[in-house]
């Protein structure tokens, strides 16, 4: 496949930061007090529970992202817009490209923290 602009994807995500995250602060935890006290396992558990609620239809991805995501994209319901290869951290990119539009990933680990990704385009 050619790597033209048509090879771009669009995705939204929910990020939960933890003690191993590269930047231990976020819009909802500017001092990083919660993040520095969150283990990766705790972040994964929280994210799995969130994912279950979304998949079961109890919660909407966008609503949950805007409340719980540690990424500034939270204010857009987790929307990261369109991106191509090599624009995101590799595990994030690989997971996004592996999804079909509308699908939600399992837990994805990056230097930023743990994510679930919804491919939207």
TrEMBL record:
Residue ranges, annotated region (Disordered): 1-31
EC category: isomerase
SUPFAM superfamilies xref list: FKBP-like (SSF54534)
Molecular function GO labels: peptidyl-prolyl cis-trans isomerase activity
Catalytic activity: [protein]-peptidylproline (omega=180) = [protein]-peptidylproline (omega=0)
Keyword entries, A-Z: Isomerase, Rotamase
Protein name: Peptidyl-prolyl cis-trans isomerase
Species per Swiss-Prot/TrEMBL record: Ambrosia artemisiifolia (Common ragweed)
Taxonomic lineage from the root: Eukaryota, Viridiplantae, Streptophyta, Embryophyta, Tracheophyta
